[in-house]
């Protein structure tokens, strides 16, 4: 991991998400829905939804990162998993904050592939080693990224959910 970090402020995120939306629009892609990869993709999907005038937003919860440069062996879909019938025949724009290894985006793209008319990915950042090359990227970097929504520690202690 590089010692220097990419720092995305809230103000820069506003400009980045608008530029990303413009890239999608300029490319002629008109998604029917935006599928957000939670959690970081929620911010991106919301901003893209407004900029592209797409009100149909869906969420897919995927766990992969457990800390800075620490991750599970494979990404895991967490409930509730979107119903494939809700995506049927749609043009889907998958939104996330970063394509790092590409494993999370691949999981989501593969989930969509058999059900949708077309699936494309939009991210704020893409790392050079990502196995998924996104159609829409604001910036490429090999640095660790400090996002405004995840740089500060939680205001509450970690929670354990009852089974």
Automatic annotation (TrEMBL):
Phosphoribosyltransferase domain location is 6-152
Question: Per the record's keyword annotation, is Glycosyltransferase included, yes or no?
Answer: yes
| Keyword terms of this UniProt record | Glycosyltransferase, Transferase
MF terms from GO for this chain are:
glycosyltransferase activity
InterPro entries attached to this UniProt entry: PRTase-like (IPR029057), PRTase_dom (IPR000836)
What is the protein name stated in its UniProt record? Phosphoribosyltransferase
Source organism of this protein record: Actinomadura litoris
């Amino acid at each position: 991991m590089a010692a220097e970090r990419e720092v995305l402020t809230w103000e820069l995120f506003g400009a980045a998400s608008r530029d990303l939306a413009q890239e999608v629009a300029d490319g002629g892609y008109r998604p029917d829905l935006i599928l957000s990869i939670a959690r970081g993709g929620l911010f991106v999907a919301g901003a893209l939804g407004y900029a592209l005038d797409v009100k149909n937003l869906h969420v897919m919860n995927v766990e992969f990162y457990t800390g800075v440069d620490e991750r599970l062996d494979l990404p895991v879909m967490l409930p509730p998993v979107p119903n494939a019938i809700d995506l049927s025949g749609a043009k889907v724009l998958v939104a996330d904050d970063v394509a790092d290894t590409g494993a999370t985006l691949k999981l989501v793209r593969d989930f969509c592939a058999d059900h949708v008319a077309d699936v494309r990915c939009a991210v704020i950042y893409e790392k050079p080693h990502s196995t998924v090359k996104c159609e829409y990227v604001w910036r490429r970097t090999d640095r660790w990224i400090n996002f405004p929504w995840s740089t500060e520690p939680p205001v509450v202690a970690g929670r354990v959910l009852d089974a």
